[in-house]
User: Which sequence fits this backbone?
């Protein structure tokens, strides 16, 4: 059992360094969403979870700490998340939804 603990010890420091950057990543994501006029809610400041709610009932979740977009295997990062949100808003407006966001 001690061997496994020794094996993972160096990775604990790397994990702590990565998690320590979450507040900066969350702040940057919030800034970009505001600049793009996207309605959102920060659901978890520790993990950087941000939800965007749309009139069509769709909810998109982004994790600023990891850059993951829930439900999108091939997309990562805040810039792709903003593009995805904007495409949903545009699609809703084209369909005649008065409350596109």
Assistant:
């Amino acid at each position: 059992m001690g061997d496994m603990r020794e094996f993972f010890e160096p990775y604990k420091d790397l994990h702590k360094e990565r998690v320590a950057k979450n507040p900066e990543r969350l702040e940057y994501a919030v800034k970009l969403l505001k600049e793009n006029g996207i309605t959102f809610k920060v659901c978890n400041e520790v993990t950087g979870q941000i939800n965007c709610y749309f009139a069509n009932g769709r909810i998109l979740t982004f994790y600023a700490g990891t850059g993951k977009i829930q439900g999108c295997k091939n997309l990562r990062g805040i810039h792709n998340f903003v593009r995805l949100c904007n495409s949903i808003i545009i699609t809703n407006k084209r369909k005649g939804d008065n409350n596109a966001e």
Observations:
- The beta strands are 41-44, 49-53, 59-63, 68-69.
